[in-house]
Each structure stands twice: as C-alpha cells, then as structure tokens.
Design a protein that fits this description.
Shape: elongated
Order of helices and strands: EEEHEEHHH
Strand order of the largest sheet: 1-2-3
Length: 138
C-alpha cells in the first residue's frame, strides 16, 4: 500500500506514506466550501460569458422536430461542468498546499501515484476524510 489514511478521533485524520505523516481535521467549513463550489463556478461562468457578450441562452439550441420544439442545453451543461471541475481542482490544490505543504500533483508524485485509478481512489478517500465520513477499508 502506497499510503494510508487513518481516523485518529472524530474530526482528526492522518495521512501516512513513505515514512511521512500529516495530520489534519475535517470541519463544517470544509463541507460548506465544497458545497458552494458549484454555485461559485456557475457565477464565474456567467460572468465570463457576459464579459464576452454572450449568455447561457445562446448555448441552448432550439430543435424543431415533428411539429414540436425541443431545447438542447447540452452545450451549457458541458461548459458548466468544465467550470465546476476547474473550481474543484483549484479548491483541492489550495487545500493540499494548506494541509500537506505541496500542490496536489506534487503530492501524487511524492506518494508515487501514477495510474488514474490510484489518483481517483486517493482523491475519494481524501474527500471522505475532509467531509468527516468514514474511510473505506482497502
């Protein structure tokens, strides 16, 4: 096993790998910040679209088929997803610097995580720790 998360107390956790240990806490603030990412990402998207003279409505396609009108919002949803992913990545990168004194990619490299499934597993466990949920056993 390349790393291990341990629950030390109700809100206290420890990450151990290669002889290194980092302790950190989950908090209501972190949970609140995670929940607000979607809203703030959407606001940023709307603001940037407006700066470019566009709007979300312009990303919606009107399709007429068999005498009916349908609205395809897939472009708007895809763009919103990109903004949400970027906001989430920035949040976790900043949180990684705060907790582990290194950016997230540097942490992955330091642990030796190379495969996408390893990185996904680590990220899932980190989120569970930060949100105060139990860590799944591997």
């Amino acid at each position: 096993m390349k790393y291990k998360f341990e629950r030390l107390a109700e809100d206290n956790y420890k990450l151990t790998y290669k002889g290194k240990e980092f302790t950190f806490k989950s908090s209501v603030k972190i949970i609140s910040e995670l929940q607000s990412l979607i809203v703030s990402a959407r606001k940023i998207m709307i603001t940037e679209l407006a700066k470019n003279g566009s709007s979300i409505k312009e990303l919606t396609k009107e399709v007429k088929e068999n005498g009916k009108t349908y609205y395809d919002n897939s472009n708007a949803k895809e763009l919103e997803k990109v903004y949400q992913e970027e906001a989430t990545m920035n949040y976790f990168n900043n949180k990684s610097v705060e907790l582990f004194n290194m950016e997230l990619q540097d942490l992955f490299n330091d642990i030796g995580l190379e495969e996408a499934n390893e990185i996904q597993q680590f990220t899932t466990e980190l989120v569970q720790c930060l949100s105060g949920k139990s860590i799944p056993t591997r």
